[in-house]
Specification:
By secondary structure, this protein is mainly beta. It is built from two helices and 16 strands.
């Protein structure tokens, strides 16, 4: 009898987990998707090219056509050596798109399926920023950041609480394994009381809303967020770019947003 009980406990736990996963899946409905099925350009009603900036992540952003492509139903974003834009003094140029002022996301689950081709100095990213709020007060949700040719991806949360106040509790990030030679799916769920991250549907970590007297710990229940998909090169985190590894590209197959159904 004792051995039978030990066998029964994990079986019941598995059944409960399966039922919970099914119940959670039934609470979501697909409300927006992008399959990149256009022949020669992305949908400009939904997406814009990310402009050049002064931070590590956007200092090489360019609207040059060679940084972008549509291929076999996928959006291609590239990091290349700048041979062809003489009026641009940047040594490298990169492609990135965002939904800023066009599409914003609230509570629900965002899935992005993509293949990240590696290079030394490559830093592709998928992330969310708040619509209409300055950084970091509105928060930042990093769904995927990958360095070089790593077999892991980083998923992180930033806010006034984590960045300006430098608070470390709760844990603000984690890594998860990826297949560096194939497509992987990167996900985040935005709940009123937490953010939950996944890679290939395996949960990596969650960031909860907590009771605290510090400001800005969880702005994610107050704003809508726009999505950024970008290929980045170089910077203090990823390190030196090796020109012999370029061009490098990532292939984005699709983006899907599932809205949470309201409980009755």
């Amino acid at each position: 009898m004792k051995n039978k009980i030990y066998w029964l406990i994990p079986a019941l736990a598995f059944l409960f987990a399966s039922c919970t996963a099914t119940r959670n899946a039934q609470q979501m409905t697909l409300s927006w998707e992008e399959n990149f099925n256009q022949q020669d350009h992305f949908d400009t009603v939904r997406w814009s090219k990310i402009p050049r900036g002064y931070s590590d992540w956007n200092r090489h952003m360019s609207n040059f056509d060679s940084c972008y492509a549509m291929r076999d139903g996928k959006l291609i974003l590239r990091g290349i050596i700048n041979h062809s834009v003489p009026e641009d003094t940047a040594r490298y140029i990169t492609g990135g798109v965002y939904t800023k002022d066009k599409v914003a996301f609230g509570f629900g689950r965002l899935d992005i399926r993509a293949k990240l081709n590696g290079a030394r100095g490559a830093w592709p990213a998928f992330w969310l920023l708040s619509q209409g709020m300055k950084w970091p007060d509105g928060g930042e949700i990093d769904i995927m950041e990958r360095l070089n040719s790593d077999s892991i991806a980083y998923q992180t949360v930033h806010s006034h609480y984590t960045y300006n106040l430098k608070m470390k509790n709760p844990k603000q990030g984690a890594t998860g394994k990826i297949d560096p030679n194939d497509f992987n799916t990167y996900s985040v769920e935005l709940h009123p009381d937490s953010l939950v991250f996944f890679i290939n549907n395996i949960r990596t970590f969650s960031y909860p809303k907590i009771q605290t007297d510090k400001e800005g710990q969880f702005p994610f229940d107050r704003y809508k967020y726009y999505l950024l998909l970008d290929m980045q090169l170089g910077g203090s985190w990823v390190g030196k770019v090796y020109t012999e590894d370029l061009p490098v590209e990532m292939e984005i197959d699709w983006v899907r947003f599932y809205e949470f159904k309201k409980k009755k």
